[in-house]
Design brief:
The protein has 3 domains: 358 residues, Alpha-Beta Barrel (TIM Barrel); 54 residues, Oligo-1,6-glucosidase, domain 2 (Alpha-Beta Complex); 67 residues, Golgi alpha-mannosidase II (Immunoglobulin-like), CATH 2.60.40.1180. It has an 8-stranded parallel β-sheet with strand order 9-8-7-3-2-1-11-10, with helices on one face. The protein has 13 helices and 19 strands. The chain is globular. A hairpin with a 6-residue loop joins strand 12 and strand 13. Helix 5 runs parallel beside helix 6 and helix 10 runs parallel beside helix 13. By secondary structure, it is an alpha/beta fold. Helix content is 25%, strand content 15%. Alpha-D-glucopyranose binds next to loops.
Length: 516
């Protein structure tokens, strides 16, 4: 296995509840993943990241963890995890486990003891505070990412506890050394079992400003309700020390274990502080998903990321974001644009993170209100539709009410495109993903990380990657001719051609050329 495999790995995110259900309860599970690994082999990815599968009351579908060293029965058991890991390794796939260190579930034994006995040491693992106005009002004005106040009252003691997400997700107090020690054990538990790496949930959130003072709510980028910015809540100076500590742990294991942080900050200069030889191996680069369709904007985003990271990660979609086909206009146009941008990202140095279903061209599903499950929907009284639409189950077959996902009743309904995008119909997008990943793999080792931009028309993004891969993305509504010599390796749309040093790139598509 190559060393530092993660630097250019293609990682596939599995949202476990919606990937494949092996036992007919309508919810995906570990055994379902194991029996559908060949899809990932055929696709050509290097690793899978599986969203949380720990025991959980599912207030946030598993991101509320009741026990960090066990498996939720709905998803299987530890033996099922071991079988999945072994089967993945047999196929040359690495497995990344999702860690949720910002908060536990309110059903976690630590929190239950903290509530049952306010004098216990467990109380100090959380952020309990007295309320204002004699205890009637929360200690400060912080709001939850999911809507509503970030504090809930513990009726027994009259104190309030902080939860940046759902009330079932009490935040841990990372200023308490016991929390650090407990987490070292959790990391070792999964590393000992053979996990290849960790995805770290809300990595920028572990520490809160010590005073827990009121926030200025007006000056946030994205408006008063936005969670972007929030200098007291996110990205405190102490947080990177946690990852220095964790890096010593992962480095003490063989096999090139890695950590990727969900650092949901859009300023890459701040994000890059989390990454390095003595910190996290990678952080998600969320700037691409915020970038609108258009060559100039995409180029600016890509250049900034290439400058900041060595090399970057690329995230176009995940289980929290509106699917990119829909963001790019939906339908055939959205699919075409999505493929074009994906091809450009796959040509760049770095590590692309794909989200299950994007390889089928799935759109955001229109989930009816009575089937919605996301806490965001409930906590905002239906004002924010939430994330159910990007989490609907994978259609494995065009036929059948359960589309090969389940023999039972799926926990979320299928999207309207389930039949046309099902895996067994081999949709055009799937064929394109397989080709892109196979060509990318064939070039591995022959390409360097240096990127040179080529002069082109405004609507065109074109670069040459060290080693002779030329990539041209045309965002115009018409075909364009670009001066570039080489043989076409791949085109995301019909009608591309190259001759006499000129390549014709159809509208909303990308062409890869190998320079002669
Ligand atoms: C992360 C997860 C998201 C979850 C939240 C709270 O942002 O990706 O799904 O709701 O953290 O754990």
């Amino acid at each position: 296995m190559p060393s530092e495999w993660w630097r250019d790995a293609v990682v596939y995110e599995i949202y476990i509840r919606s990937y494949a259900d092996s036992d007919g309860d309508g919810v995906g599970d570990l055994e379902g993943i194991r029996t559908h690994l060949d899809h990932l082999v055929d696709l050509g990815v290097d690793a899978l990241w599986v969203t949380p599968f720990y025991p959980s009351p599912m207030a946030d579908h598993g991101y509320d963890v009741a026990d960090y060293t066990d498996v939720e029965p709905t998803f299987g058991d530890l033996a099922a995890f071991d079988r999945l890991l072994a089967a993945a390794h047999d196929r040359g796939l690495r497995v990344i486990v999702d860690l949720v260190p910002n908060h536990t579930s309110s059903e976690h034994a630590w929190f239950k003891e903290a509530v049952a006995d306010p004098s216990s040491a467990m109380r100090e693992r959380y952020l309990f505070r007295d309320g204002r106005d004699g205890g009637a009002l929360p200690p400060n004005n912080w709001t939850s990412v999911f809507g509503g106040p970030a504090w809930s009252r513990d009726e027994a003691s009259g104190q309030w506890y902080l939860h940046l997400f759902d009330s079932g997700q009490p935040d841990l107090d990372w200023r308490n050394p016991d929390v650090h020690e407990a987490w070292r054990g959790i990391l070792r538990f999964w590393l000992d079992r053979g996990a290849d790496g960790f995805r770290i949930d809300v990595a920028h959130g572990l520490y809160k400003s010590a005073l827990l003072a009121d926030e200025e709510t007006v000056a946030r980028p994205g408006g008063p309700g936005s969670n972007v910015g929030r200098p007291q809540v996110w990205d405190q100076p102490e947080v990177t020390d946690v990852f220095r500590d964790w890096r010593r742990i992962t480095d003490s294991y063989d096999g090139d274990r890695m950590m990727v942080g969900e650092v949901f900050i859009l300023d890459v200069d701040r994000v890059k502080r989390y990454v390095g030889d003595d910190r996290l191996h990678q952080a998600f680069n969320f700037t691409v998903f915020r970038t609108p369709w258009g060559a100039a904007a995409l180029r600016a985003t890509i250049e900034t990321a290439l400058d900041a990271f060595d090399p970057p990660t690329w995230v176009l979609s995940n289980h929290d974001l509106t699917r990119h086909v829909t963001r790019y206009g939906g339908g055939d146009l959205g699919r075409r644009r999505g493929l074009a941008v994906t091809a450009a990202l796959l040509a760049l140095p770095g590590s692309p993170y794909l989200y299950q279903g994007e390889e089928l061209g799935l759109e955001e599903s229109d989930v009816p209100p009575e089937r919605r499950t996301d806490p965001t929907w409930f906590r905002t009284g239906g004002k924010v539709p939430g994330r159910d639409g990007c989490r609907t189950p994978i259609p494995w077959t065009a036929a059948g009410p359960g589309h090969g996902f389940t023999t039972g009743h799926p926990w979320l309904p299928f999207g309207a495109d389930a039949a046309t995008c099902a895996v067994d119909t081999t949709p055009a997008v799937l064929t394109a993903y397989r080709s892109m990943l196979s060509v990318r793999r064939s070039l591995r080792g022959s390409l360097g990380n240096r990127v040179t931009w080529l002069d082109t028309a405004d609507d065109v993004l074109a670069f040459e990657r060290e080693g002779g891969l030329v990539c041209v993305l045309n965002t115009a509504a018409e075909d364009v001719d670009v001066m570039a010599a080489g043989d076409i390796l791949l085109a995301t749309a019909q009608g591309a051609s190259a001759s006499g040093g000129v390549v014709t790139v159809p509208s909303a598509s990308t062409v890869w050329l190998r320079r002669r």
